[in-house]
């Protein structure tokens, strides 16, 4: 084929341009100061690349677009359900629009649900039902759920040239370093589809006109690839990377939750007794905070949800105490003032309170009930 020096396809999608505008109807975000909005958005991420770019974006663009994506790959654990809801609600409060990419084609590429697209789509519908039930701020158009198959098919002329350009500009070793985003390693025996996957996920960022990539720390490498691609095409405004914390599994040494190991995490529709059993068996060494999954749950789920942590004890064990900060809790736990035998029941009660509306929804709503039954019957595949 004849070569010619074409403008990179992504240049049509200058989504990251920052242009001010005015509005006559003040929103919650407009009532917050720039610093308040910045701190709210920044609190979502364990890491931010780069903070000054984020501040500039919030100052100059009235409706920044944040993107997050999920493979529909099985039942939803509490990090994907509750932590994501907490983060999305912070972003919408700060005046952002959130695009949630239901990555059905990506799940098929990665052999989730055995590559059965019909099952994958059912899991995607189940994910949306959970986010609605747990309290994600989806009123109006602040949050948009987008199916990758539908969006790519409808704008294929934009998407595939972009994917091809990203693939053309990167060597295979650079792409292989990104396979962590799929829960794979460079040493795994990968299919050609799984090698193509990072180029597609990188393209998603520009295709969705995202200003902020709000994904987990495990997705960091492909988000950095997107920033490097901006350098390659001499694009000034790069996507800001806001990587959230990854909750560990409940057992000792589990760096992250696993859908294939039910004991490693709390699922969003777990019954009260299941939550109680899992927390009771969870790793929770006395006086040790580092590497303690129960403390992680309290820090990243309970405190952001309730702004406090309530412990109920017998008077001889110290009586009831309400912690207003995680630091106060850490102090008591490290000193031995608070024992795992008292912390675990309090954590169980808090989690069950958060999850009860989800249980109610899946027991009373016919569509949700049917989806859950089907998803529970699917075999999780890698």
Automatic annotation (TrEMBL):
It comes from the Eukaryota. It holds the Pfam family tRNA-synt_1b. It catalyses: tRNA(Tyr) + L-tyrosine + ATP = L-tyrosyl-tRNA(Tyr) + AMP + diphosphate + H(+). It is found in: Cytoplasm, Cytosol. InterPro entries: aa-tRNA-synth_Ic, Rossmann-like_a/b/a_fold, Tyr-tRNA-ligase_arc/euk-type, Tyr-tRNA_synthase. Residues 1-27 are annotated as: Disordered. One of its GO terms (biological process) is tyrosyl-tRNA aminoacylation. Catalyzes the attachment of tyrosine to tRNA(Tyr) in a two-step reaction: tyrosine is first activated by ATP to form Tyr-AMP and then transferred to the acceptor end of tRNA(Tyr). Belongs to the class-I aminoacyl-tRNA synthetase family. This is tyrosine--tRNA ligase.
